[in-house]
From TrEMBL:
UniProt keyword annotations, A-Z: DNA-binding, Transcription, Transcription regulation
Name of the protein: HTH lysR-type domain-containing protein
A Pfam family per the record: HTH_1
Coiled coil: none
Native source organism of the sequence: Acinetobacter higginsii
GO molecular function annotations of the record: DNA binding; DNA-binding transcription factor activity
Keyword rRNA processing: no
Record-linked InterPro entries: LysR-type_TF_proteobact-type, LysR_HTH_N, LysR_subst-bd, WH-like_DNA-bd_sf, WH_DNA-bd_sf
CDD domains noted in UniProt: PBP2_CrgA_like
Protein family per UniProt: Belongs to the LysR transcriptional regulatory family.
Record domain HTH lysR-type: where: 8-65
Amino acid sequence: MSQQLRRMMFSSVELFCLVAEYESFSKAALHAGVSPAAVSRSIARLEKHLTLPLFIRTTRQVRLTPQGKIYFDECKQALNQILEAEQQLKNQNQQPTGLIRLSVPTPYGHYRILPLLAKFSQQYPKIEIDVQLTNKNVDFIAEGYDLAIRGRQFADSNLIARQLEQAELIVVASPEYLKQFGTPQYLEDLQHHQCIQFVLPSTGKNVPWLFNLNRQIVEYVTTAKIRCLDDILGTVTLAKHGAGLLQTYRFIVEKEIENHTLVEVLTEFSGASRPFSLVYPSKKHESFHLRVLIDFLINELKNVN
């Protein structure tokens, strides 16, 4: 096939996709800035090349044949990839600019995201970021957020999720507490201990503790005299002052374990984790400055596990 013919076929594919989307030769022609006759000739040329009909034409309607539907799905995907590649090339010569509204859980924000945003801001000085630290799920549309980071699994077909990490869970307590009440050896021992509990703001229920028991992840629901209803970091303060046992993420209490203000227990049953993911509304193409932040966070956090 000659280069001229290849260019003609590519143009025909673009016009074919427009006709399929608008279900009209005249609307496709208006959008493309050509005559309806030119669109008709282009489709005829494409059908001749493929040796199969792409449209069923009536006086009132233009609709895809079954073969045309298959061809349209593939062509549309290919054209979107071409458009995305073109946009990426253009973006390489542009400085990303814009405002991003980001919602992050309190502990993950303090220990993971905020330190990275300082680095990000130096690399991309024209991007502004409004950060909300909260443990509540946000409504993207009603509250106007672009990105959120969420822990635990969720199901929402309107959102895209990109996992950042599987955060390991461990149980800790202060040396003073363990000296007074003893060190638990088995999961059954938890019922005889004070367990500091975090409560999910969205449900009002205690967050179950997770353990690795015989290579199976099991849930353990504790009873607690002291519960924190919003700020997970409050549970760490309670644990450091001897209020009881606490299950939390390892990344939150690494320094406390190093300086011996907290001690890890029940290590035989460790290995459970919860995911943290970047989520954002489903779109065909994210804005350039938003995609820059998404790629940056994923790249920076890929080696934390």
